[in-house]
Amino acid sequence: MTATRRQFLAGTGAMFVAASLPRLLDPKSAFATLQDPQIGPALVDPTLIDSWLAVRGNGTVEILTGKVELGTGVLTTTLQLVADELDVPLASCKVIEGDTWRTPDQGFTAGSQSNKTQYAAKGGLRQAAAEARLALLGMASARLGAPAAALTVVDGVVRGGSGQVTYAELIGDRRFNLKITGKAVPKRFADYKIVGTSVPRVDVPAKATGKFRYTQDVRVDGMVHARVVRPPTLDSKLVKVAGFAGGRNPRGIVATVVKGNFVAVVAEREEQAIDGADSLRVTWETAPLPSFEHLYGDLQRQTETTDRLLIDTGDVEAALAGAAKKLQVNYRYPIQMHGSMGASAAVASVVGQTATVWSATQGVYPLRDAIATALGFPKQNVHVVYVEGSGCYGLNGADNVALDAAVISQQVGKPARVQYMRADEHKWENYGQPYLHEMRGGLDAAGNVVAWDYVAWTASRGGRPGPPANLPSGVLMGFPENPLAKSPPPTPSTPPNVVDNSNSGPSYVIRSQRLRSHSGKQAFMAGPLRSPNRIQNTWANESFIDELAHLAGRDPIEFRLAHLKDQRMIDVLKLAASLADWKPRVAASQIDSARFKRGRGAAAMVYEGDNGYNAAIFAVTVDTKTGKVVVDDCWSAQDCGPALNPDGMRAQAEGCLMQTISRSLIEEVKWGPEGITSEDWESYPVIRFMAMPKLHFQIIDRPDEEVMGAGEVLITNGPAAIANAIFDATGKRIRQVPFTPARVRRLLASD
After folding, report:
1. Which pTM does this prediction carry?
2. Is the separation of the CB atoms in 54 and 62 below 8 Å?
3. Strands 512-521 and 449-460
4. Is the pLDDT of residue 10 over 90?
């Protein structure tokens, strides 16, 4: 499928296609006239209505958004929003996603921020749609001879005055040419008719029937195929490339690309690239990885760190000294991977000083910047087009493979497709960060928490694209890495009892608090993995509050409620307890002598401090002989403000539940001195669908509150709630993720 230049420049300067189809543009046509005012980044001015919406001559409303569909349902809720704001049928709306020449720069689709951003009361898509409706009513008022307030709109038809007129008749295939003034008032949630209903996901039918096209399906005329030949470890050095085994090029080989420590084999066909990569003789000077067994000690022993003091009431040591009971424990959270089921792929075409890249990136603009730097091009010369790939829930290989494809295409002068293999995806991604938490707390004589001392050690390297060296291939290519951030002055910026956007602080009201963190640089690339930092911090905080409840001899739910003042947090916790038919008692007070022991544990938090409330109670069965833990049930209550699409929110909760069980019970990246050993689904197993427990899920709908994210809330509570349930079942505290059978057996055998 190739577009002519006439098609490409039609309308307002882009070819519109259904959201489920990749945009397979002809690169030469795409860059025929970089200075044409109808194309290119200069057109995408977020202060213009036309940068967000277009009404076509057939009545279709095209929505332009930088927020992309990653399998979370944001495409559907975006359609619901615009259909309601404009009073048009849902079926007449189409979405154009993530295109640096066509859609506004909305940063990354990440962090449960998409619906929160799209539905914001001022600014962005909701405001643009309200402004478009106001402008359309103004046009209709002039056409029909009636004041705008006297007009009604149903299915894109305006009625009143002298008759009726459609949106298409008013402006079809023409531009608004209007600034977003902020004067238009979006509708109240109570006035929406489609928002708040369980509209089926619009992308699912094509995916379920195999008709959907992913990034892996993109094809461009004349393209070649490539495979990257990677060193044993990220910091290894290339010594030499000695050609192919046997002394001659395998059939179909086009070129060998070398850029710093980055090596790739390019061939006419994909299987030829695979064979060529396997037979290329490369010598490396290996930089050994640090000890897997000493990970957490190494985190504490880092000599260069960014040190932050988040909260300090100044009296924690005195409060601990005067406490009736005290507790000090450590919690460990491992390095984990995204483990996308479909290995990443990208296609790039570099022609002269221009580039077109088709990628499943979460941020077309930041990726554009990274690729422009890598190629030595001005940013406006790089056109990044989003095409959905395997669900990523963070920074998987989608950006890295796009960088690979762009550099390879530039080197060989042909469009290049790079398809990762399973080991590429597993071993060369930006992993989730490891954490070590040291927690100290104190209780008064009445069993209330009077002191809370949190110290966290972690390490990171790289991150989302922008600088090329934020990605593994950028490091191999020799681009400079960002230096470790300097420690800010020790003046706490977060008040006590306020959770920061990394969930470092507890949600509970505690008089004396101190929160400190130390972050260094590790040998592995790191980046956001679903609930980045939040799941690690909540794991420690919600495990610790549970331990303090037991130390106080109090019921875990009652103890939490006694230390809360946020009514929405109280409401989700009470509702979850009600769903679970929770009967107050001290945890681990009903342990029997049976081999299979059952228990329940709770966790609750507000995600990022202001982006979704969730409380969850997990029921587990522990096989004391094998150490295997099975999650039987989960009762969860959730408050994300208005329930935009209840079925969609439940689907997100189900996905969160499966992934949090997997990450809690079995997921852990492993390595040896000469590289990552978690290279496939045997060495890095993930949970299977047969392990899905019963989910008892209820939404608290708050249409008068701001929209919050639903994609990362339930997952955040999982590790702590499951660990607390294991304690309730066995009387043994597990303080290291994952809770593997071997680790549980050792725990049960300990004194």
Report:
1. 0.94
2. yes
3. parallel
4. no
